[in-house]
Design the sequence.
């Protein structure tokens, strides 16, 4: 860039009219996109929870019926089941665990302890209280997510 | 100009994003009706996209047609209704020729074809065993003393082995079946061959209703005959247009399923030892009779489900698979059913397994007490 061009820029206005219009449109668009994502998130209460390991379902629990949909005995250990809460431990074959507590009364799920990493992101993740949240433990390839697959009379056929 | 282009690009991006959020849901209306036929219930579910005033009228007309066809089939092939051709066949003397209607003739031809293809594992001539083990009556009240003797059962096996000798013929638009001349003596009586096409009749009815649905042009819905056979069209409220088909876990006490898979535009049939059974001294007696032994199956196979093809054929295949045993079933599926998808559950001494050729990414295990196994003899 020549000294002449630099001089022209220094002397010029900081913002011209078109610059302001473009920045304004971008700012409005970003705000609109953020709001649309925030406002359209599925904040309905979760009907249950599902735990997956490497994409495969290893545990399902339905709040309304208080029943386990499926339990993979190879990696899920039920530690306690009362009217108030269900405590379980996800265990990896090669070692490693995540302790999960399901609060039946408040319909929320939280990881309370894990040995996945020093940061323990899964433990510090907020509890799942609605359909918009998940808890992910990347080192253990484990995901806890709301059970959205409610048994729809018109879609599910039993044979 | 560059600024105008940049501004336009941002606006376009926002419009494209927002268009993805738009609700494109069309208007759908669903109607259903339950029918009672062949001692069980059948459910018809039809969904119409953007229905007009004629939907209700057309649906009622469809229901009338379905009811008529179900009644015709039952009246034609029932083993117990005196007006049916099969009842007349069963009552006839050994060696007699009986006139059949077209439905009974078609169904009997199909049954004989599958009898040959399954090496006799599908055999609708196990009538006497089904009767003596109580499955034509209140089987819940069966006792050890009421079970047939081994000698009697051996006589039934001998008689049913002549099923393939039924002679079918057609003359001047009329259909005939000639009974085998063979008879056996059991419990002081001389018995001639009797058949029950119930094991294939429900599937045949599903195929017939599926044809009607095609004629009416309905795209969404299904026709479910009890827990036995189903014709699935498309589901209106999913991207793939597929229904979630849940396969019942045979030992679940809560009606749970062991597997769910997505299916559309196909027929499915299933058989299971949980549908009608009783237990005496720890032995399970179910309504599926093994033609080789003349007794309720003890092969360890608890359920069998076949997807694709005709529901009538699938209905017979599932019964045959239940009788074959694990190795025989795997061999048969590999040799003869490679064009269809099959799943069966197996009780391996108290631990449950399921075998399927459905690709693993197309099903979800719902009950992990059923271990998935590869449908291959090498892996058994």
Sequence:
């Amino acid at each position: 860039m020549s000294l002449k061009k630099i001089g022209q820029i220094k002397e010029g206005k900081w913002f011209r009219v078109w610059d302001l219009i473009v920045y304004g449109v971008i700012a409005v668009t970003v705000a609109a996109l953020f709001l649309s994502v925030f406002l359209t998130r599925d904040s309905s209460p979760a009907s249950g929870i599902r735990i997956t390991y490497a994409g495969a379902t290893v545990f399902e629990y339905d709040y309304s019926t208080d029943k386990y949909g499926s339990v993979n005995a190879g990696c899920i250990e039920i530690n306690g089941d009362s009217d108030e809460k269900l405590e379980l431990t996800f265990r990896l074959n090669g070692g490693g665990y995540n302790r999960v507590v399901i609060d039946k009364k408040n319909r929320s799920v939280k990881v309370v302890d894990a040995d996945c990493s020093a940061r323990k992101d899964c433990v510090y993740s907020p509890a799942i209280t609605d359909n918009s949240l998940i808890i992910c433990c990347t080192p253990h390839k484990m995901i806890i997510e709301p059970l959205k697959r409610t048994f729809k009379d018109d879609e599910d056929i039993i044979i | 100009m560059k600024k105008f282009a940049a501004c336009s690009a941002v606006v376009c991006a926002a419009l494209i994003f927002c268009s993805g959020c738009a609700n494109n849901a069309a208007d759908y209306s669903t109607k259903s009706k339950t029918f009672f036929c062949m001692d069980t219930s059948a459910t018809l579910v039809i969904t119409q996209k953007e229905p007009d005033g004629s939907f209700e009228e057309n649906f009622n007309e469809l229901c009338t047609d379905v009811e008529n066809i179900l009644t015709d089939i039952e009246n034609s092939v029932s083993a117990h209704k005196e007006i049916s051709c099969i009842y007349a066949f069963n009552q006839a003397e050994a060696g007699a020729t009986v006139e059949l209607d077209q439905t009974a003739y078609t169904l009997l031809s199909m049954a004989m074809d599958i009898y040959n293809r399954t090496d006799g594992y599908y055999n609708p001539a196990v009538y006497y065993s089904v009767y003596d083990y109580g499955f034509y009556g209140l089987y819940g009240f069966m006792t050890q003393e009421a079970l047939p003797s081994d000698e009697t059962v051996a006589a039934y096996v001998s008689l049913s082995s002549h099923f393939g000798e039924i002679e079918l013929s057609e003359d001047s638009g009329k259909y005939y079946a000639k009974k085998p001349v063979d008879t056996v003596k059991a419990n002081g009586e001389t018995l001639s061959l009797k058949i029950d096409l119930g094991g294939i009749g429900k599937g045949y009815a599903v195929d017939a209703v599926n044809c009607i649905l095609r004629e009416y042009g309905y795209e969404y819905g299904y026709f479910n005959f009890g827990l036995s056979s189903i014709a699935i069209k498309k589901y209106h409220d999913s991207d793939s247009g597929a229904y979630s088909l849940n396969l019942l876990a045979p030992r679940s006490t809560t009606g749970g399923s062991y597997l769910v898979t997505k299916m559309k535009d196909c027929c499915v049939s299933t058989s299971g030892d949980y549908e009608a059974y009783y237990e005496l001294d720890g032995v399970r007696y179910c309504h599926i009779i093994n033609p080789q032994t003349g007794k309720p199956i003890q092969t360890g196979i608890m359920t069998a489900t076949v997807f694709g093809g005709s529901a009538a054929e699938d209905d017979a295949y599932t019964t045959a698979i239940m009788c074959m045993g694990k190795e025989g079933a795997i061999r048969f599926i590999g040799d003869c059913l490679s064009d269809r998808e099959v799943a069966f559950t197996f009780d391996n001494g108290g631990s449950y397994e399921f075998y399927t050729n459905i690709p693993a990414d197309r099903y979800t295990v719902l009950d992990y007490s059923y271990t998935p196994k590869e449908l291959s003899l090498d892996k058994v």
About this structure: Chain A is about 25% helix and 35% strand. The first strand of chain A starts at residue 48 and ends at 53. Chain A touches chain B through 29 residues (CB under 8 Å).
